Amino acid sequence: MQKPIVKTSTGLHYFLLVILLSTALAASQTIVKTLPGYPGQLPFKLETGYIGVGEDEAVQLFYYFVESEGNPEEDPLIIWLAGGPGCGTLRAFFYEIGPMQIQYGNYMDNVPALQLDPNSWTKVANVIYLDAPTLSGYSYTKTPEVVRSSDTASASQTAEFMRKFVRDHPKFLKNPMYVTGISYSGIVIPMITEELYKGNDEGLEPIVNIQGYMAGNPLTDKTGDINSRLEYAYRVALISQELYEATKRDCNGDYAEVDSNNVQCMSDLDEVNKRVGGINIQQILDPDCDAATNLVRSGNPVIRGNRKTLHPIEMRSSFTDTFCRGDYYNYATLWANDENVMKALNVRQGTVKEWLLCNLDMKYNYGKPSMPQYEFNVQSSVVYHQKLTERNCRALIFSGDHDMMVPHVGTRNWINSLNLSITESNWDAYYVNGQDAGYKTTYTRHNYSLVFATVKGAGHTAPEFKPTECFEMVKRWFARRPI
Fold first, then answer.
1. Which domain of life is it from (predicted)?
2. Of residues 403, 408, 425, 449, which has the active-site annotation?
3. What whole-number distance in Å separates Cα of residue 90 and Cα of residue 87?
4. pLDDT score, position 316
5. 20 to 30 Å CA-CA from 382: which of 29, 35, 135, 395?
6. What is the pLDDT of residues 457-466, one digit of tens each?
7. What is the DSSP letter of 92?
8. Is the peptide bond before 206 cis (omega within 30 degrees of 0)?
9. Taken in order 221, 226, 229, 230, is the CA torsion positive or negative?
10. 68 is annotated as an active-site residue
11. Which residue among the candidates 136, 139, 150, 183 is catalytic per the annotation?
12. Active site residue 403
């Protein structure tokens, strides 16, 4: 059986438990030295495995862990959470923060060929890529009773995962720990972070060296973030000033929870949607390959990338017409569903019938309280950010300035509601390779600090669009230098 997290006044019990590694623990961890699609041995240390959480550890969360290619003994230990909810964290592994990229159109070992990501965050951090909540990626449950998850359950289970991870990897106990992720994970990131601080206060062992959190394009205040789409559309010239002001007036500034009996407001929103219908809500400059955008109801389109049956030739030819970024995700789906890939990653046989980029039974769309496998039971996580302002804690929040899914406008609004003091930077430019990479504002209160940064030209998953700029930004932040 796995070693438990213990609550004790001394560390004696914990250290006694660390001495003996159980057979079950050893069987749940695999050092992966080669991967189908990549020639030769991996030039970094990759571990995959499972950690059981929840009652009777019925939820088995799958992770990839890449040790820092810099200084693993001292570099930060971060956990990265995908959005959705329900998206597999391979999306980050291949498309967002590294360490690998897919060579589109090239194949090796009968799977899409892989190459190293020059902007991999693993150069400056030890990165845990976690398939959470359960039934995301390769994660699974032992019993059907725990299939359905929620914002609160996911946050609690991920916090439990982190404490168990460092329990099982004691050499990382002293590394600075940060909870990080993107998109919908903005709801749970501050919840997980507060839970880890709270666990330390309560004496849960091992004590984790939690120092803060990072969130990219984070959904945070669901109503406020959705409402900010109208102002954003106006700011980037997608709708006229007259239509913006009329809609704001007639809807009383609330478009997410509009009264359907307010005929004038509904008419205004119809006019807005006519203007933005052909705009890609994730990156306003990309072609729109999905259903018409609805300013209020549009969610994260994740159908593309859930197809694993495309023939390689069909995939290569799919780029000859309109560029659709989502088509790239099909390569990850083909790779992840290959039997040899699953064997290399030591995925437990029979636990996952099909790897999906995103579990559509969890996918969030505004206005739905739940999906078959997930309950959206936290409307806003701002209160958790507020709690963290009372702790010795660092935060980095960044937004692609071409993202209309979770616009930087709404993110700035909830940050302002924390009543922090602006310090040395107030919408100042920061630079990468001599070029303006975005704008930053720094805030503080007591021992809490927050940096908010835009990423110029980036869309909803900022590192995917501007990998060099995002890598430089986080490298500086981890090193406690101005970004």
1. Eukaryota
2. 403
3. 9
4. 43
5. 135
6. 999 999 999 9
7. I
8. yes
9. negative
10. no
11. 183
12. yes
On the CB side of 316, CA atoms within 13 Å amount to 8
What residue type is 387 in one-letter code? Answer: K
Helix (H, G, I), strand (E, B) or coil at 162: helix
For 235-294, what is each residue's pLDDT tens digit? Answer: 999 999 999 999 999 999 999 988 889 999 999 999 999 999 999 999 999 999 888 888
- Per the DSSP assignment, residues forming a β-bridge with 158 are none
Q: Would you call 380 exposed, middle or buried from its count of C-beta atoms within 10 A (0-12, 13-18, 19+)?
A: middle
Per-residue pLDDT tens over the stretch 89-148: 999 999 999 999 999 989 999 999 999 999 999 999 999 999 999 999 999 999 999 999
Asked if 81 and 188 count as a contact pair (C-beta separation under 8 A), the reply is: yes
Closest among 161, 128, 108 to 45, alpha carbons compared: 128
User: CA 476, CA 46: separation in Å to the nearest integer?
Assistant: 24
Tokens of 214: 């990072």
Apex CA 441: angle with CA 180 and CA 121, to 5°? 30
Number of Cα atoms under 13 Å in the Cβ half of residue 328: 13
| 421 phi/psi in degrees, rounded to 5 | -95, 130
Per-position DSSP letters for 217-278, written without gaps between them: S---BHHHHHHHHHHHHHHTTSS-HHHHHHHHHHTTT-STT--TT-HHHHHHHHHHHHHHTT
Active site residue 425: no
CB 51 within 8 A of CB 61: yes
Q: How many CA atoms lie within 13 A of 363 on its CB side?
A: 15
Q: Which residues contact 16 (CB under 8 A, 6 or more apart)?
A: none
41 phi and psi, to 5 degrees? -80, 150
Instruction: Write out the DSSP string of 129-142.
Output: EE--STTSTT-EES
- How many separate helices (H) and strands (E) can be counted in the chain? 15, 19
Which domains occur in the chain, in start order?
25-221+378-478 (3.40.50.1820)
Q: Which residue has the tokens 């929870």?
A: 257
Q: What is the pTM assigned to this prediction?
A: 0.92
pLDDT of residue 365: 85
- Residue pair 275/243 in contact by the 8 Å Cβ criterion: yes
Cα-Cα-Cα-Cα torsion 132, 418, 76, 159, nearest 10 degrees, comes to: -30
* CA–CA distance, 393 with 137 (Å, rounded to integer): 30
125: exposed, middle or buried (Cβ count in 10 Å: 0-12, 13-18, 19+) = buried
Indicate which residue of 385, 402, 408, 460 is catalytic.
460
